[in-house]
Amino acid sequence: MEGMVLAQPQILRRISDRRIVVRISSPVKGKVGLICGGGSGHEPAHVGYVGRGMLDAAVMGDVFTSPAPGDILTAIKAVNGDAGILLIIWNYGGDVMNFTSAEETARGIGIVVDHVIVNDDVAIKDLKKRRGVGGTIFVQKIAGAKAEHKENLEEVKRIAEKVITNVRSMGIALTPCIVPALGKPTFTMGEDEIELGIGIHGEPGVQRSKMMKSNEIAEYLTRNIASDVKLSVGDQVAVMVQGMGGTSNMEKFIFYKDIYAQLAALGVKVRNSFVGEYTPSMEMVGLQLTVLRLDEELAQLLKEPTEAPGWHMWS
Amino acid sequence: MFKQAGEVIIEKSQQLSELDMIGDADFGVNISSGFERILANLSELHDPDIGSILTTAGQVFVFDVGSTIGGLIGRGFQKAGKQLQGKRELNAQDFAAFLETVLRTIEQVGGAKVGDKTLLDALYPAVTAANEAVKSGVTNARRILEIATSAAEQGTNNTVNMVARIGRASYLGERSRGTIDPGAMFIYIFLKAMAQASHI
Known about the structure:
heterodimer; A: alpha/beta; Rossmann fold; Hypothetical Protein Tm841, Chain: A,domain 3; 6-stranded mixed beta sheet; 8 helices; 32% helix; B: mainly alpha; Serine Threonine Protein Phosphatase 5, Tetratricopeptide repeat; 0% strand
């Protein structure tokens, strides 16, 4: 976290020795304060998304560990511009528990706080248990743009919910990752195996398979996402391709080419593309695909500028 | 006694993390960092009663450690701490009641049920056994602790063949069978450490 803040000292400010980073300009009066957070290990998420146009604060825990309600409450107070706070929570037991706990405490001292829960990972069938992954970043960006217009909390929440309704993700891995505290990989894989439907916390996926080619992986992920969010001919989308932390850029672009072809075959037009690392998982070698179905409102907000250092858009 | 239990937990933290490899492997470090801070905080309190010890421990877990286990066990300890305010010794009933308070609080806050393959699958049998022992006339607190520990051990071993229905392991469905749940193991280790410490 120190490194990230030192790398962008004009925008980012750390709160004492806690794992909380806020905008230097905080609090922004009259603007809904946006906060997101979770375990470390997914850099640039979420510290990299703090800045005008996206988050007001990021609250982080230890690697893959949910942050403490005490820190979340500190962040809420630090970015309270008297227009309410929206917590963007990705759907993990610990994060939901700790963020809503801080929300309750903040409400108890008179701060208006609400939240949305992101659950975009189609690898998990049960909606209540569905993980929040890459789609969370689109929620931050679009809600962030909305908030920057000084819209009220209800509006910002509405747009965040709209993104959640229209975004889906799924990932695969070729290797596990090493959680620093444990010091060894969280699971083992053979050289010729692939883990399907992985999360971003080093856990095994939902299924293991023999190695697949890029176009086969593209077909698999696109099919699962398209059927879940019911993509149809003529839909326009934003596509995010990530490497999970350990994949070469070249491979990400090869994969992007195959995703583009899959979507084209479905009659779906890619309006915006994002290729890089957004919510990786330490040094895992893998790929994560996120697709957001756009309408005009979402497309406009997605394009608006942001100074958040971690945001990167290819087109 | 709490202090000794804390030290044992810290030692065992690597083992707990390895069990947590089914998920994200952070369990052991969360628990051990929690206990380290609790021990540090406790050393600053002047002659705390049992309620204060538990409340302090609970606060550290909830506010400093965060994480899932921190939130659950922290709230359990806080609730129990309020109940045991002013006490310097626990008799058999107190001890059973303490365990039950922690159990009920975690059930309420965490949303898991017995059979979901969580710490409840060690804690529930421990509480049941403790209550039965008290009802059947056992008055020695140490004995209650031993009975609870034994039940927790059994419960923990039973988690091996369960499929996880909540938490990160639950994403794996059938693949989550075959390993002991780290939460249950934590309950067993904690009770065992307290039982050992109570003999000193």
